[in-house]
Design brief:
This protein is an alpha+beta fold. It contains 13 helices and 13 strands. A hairpin with a 2-residue loop joins strand 7 and strand 8.
Length: 350
């Protein structure tokens, strides 16, 4: 559904606001509102609808308040908005009977679980925001990940550096500032699956990064120039690959323009490193959980970020904040209806 709009964020909230009325939630869940979502048999439809509608109402209010708040507290407001939106999505889309009482916890924690984390927590002198982490736990994050077939176990540790680098909209700025490496590349043509074969196109200047991030690409794919141009390179698989076992990277189309390939992120599972693909909603959830922890409990460290002492990361965070204000509610809307809600400003001629 496309909406011509002078104020996309305002219209996103208006579309979400339709579902802050339990009657409309009931209609969506039962298929009486036109959507592309799979209709899941719902028990206790009235109870579910009331919980979803109130969570959406809270999420909208948190995000609206973040528009006028100072950056010193904005990550906290946005995280609580994400938490409310995520609960609404879980209750409405889960194939299991889940209610608010079943998802009381964040699903992430910063409580130390090993000696290395204890040392890091106590080492204020060498503190770095990029080294902050989240330990996976019971609650919203685990249930949200199931919606995207990305089930995590409670042994996994995720670092901010890895998830922050995987926000495609930040790629240009990350590459420019050169504080850490971005974890995405520009897409020319999206991943295409046909009869267990895969092809995709990238911009030539990204070849080195692609082959560094995914060494198997050189073995599993043949590359050729596209359209007789030196600007683009086509990759075609020389082995059988199905959508289910293509784990090199995934397509990501920004809600405000731009197409990317996003690589797996590194996590720690127990004592071993592991690479996994993580949906952008989950990446945002992890990032803002970690940032909100700094706002709430580590004001001294957070002040270092705000003042620009810590690698001037505040410049990246400010842009990320504006990106999330626009895209996270949009993605929630998309997943509630299982269709794309897009917004564009009309052009005016003098």
């Amino acid at each position: 559904m496309h909406t011509w709009s002078e104020e996309p964020k305002k219209n996103i909230y208006q579309h979400l606001d339709m579902l802050t009325y339990p009657k409309n939630c009931e209609k969506l869940l039962s298929g009486k509102i036109n959507s592309k979502r799979t209709i899941i048999p719902q028990k206790n439809l009235k109870k579910k609808s009331k919980e979803i509608s109130f969570c959406l109402k809270q999420g909208i209010e948190f995000f609206k308040n973040a528009e006028y708040a100072d950056i010193s507290i904005v990550p906290l407001l946005l995280y609580y908005g994400m938490l409310s939106f995520s609960k609404a999505l879980i209750i409405s889309n889960s194939t299991e009977e889940i209610y608010l009482d079943d998802i009381k916890y964040h699903g992430l924690t910063t409580r130390t679980k090993n000696e290395k984390q204890k040392i890091q927590k106590n080492n204020k002198k060498n503190w770095s925001l990029l080294n902050e982490y989240a330990n996976v736990n019971d609650g919203v994050f685990l249930e949200l990940s199931k919606l995207f077939s990305q089930e995590f176990n409670k042994n996994i540790i995720i670092k901010l550096k890895d998830t922050l680098s995987s926000v495609p909209e930040l790629k240009t700025l990350i590459d420019k500032l050169n504080i850490f490496e971005s974890n995405s590349i520009n897409c020319y043509s999206e991943i295409n699956y046909k009869n267990d074969a895969v092809d995709f196109g990238i911009y030539t200047y990204d070849i080195t990064k692609l082959e560094k991030k995914c060494p198997k690409i050189k073995k599993d794919f043949i590359k050729s120039k596209m359209h007789g141009s030196n600007a683009f390179t086509q990759y075609s698989s020389n082995i059988n690959i199905s959508p289910d076992n293509f784990t090199y990277f995934y397509n990501y189309s920004s809600v405000i323009g731009g197409r990317y390939f996003v690589f797996p992120i590194n996590v720690i599972e127990g004592t071993k490193k592991k690479s996994i693909l993580i949906n952008q909603i989950l990446i945002d959830y992890v990032n803002f959980f970690i940032l909100s922890e700094q706002v709430r409990y580590h004001q001294d460290n957070w002040n270092k970020i705000l003042s620009g002492e810590n690698d001037a990361l505040i410049s990246i965070i400010k842009i990320y904040v504006e990106c999330v204000k626009r895209r996270f509610p949009n993605l929630i809307l998309n997943y509630l209806f299982n269709e794309s809600f897009s917004y564009g400003s009309p052009a005016y001629l003098n």
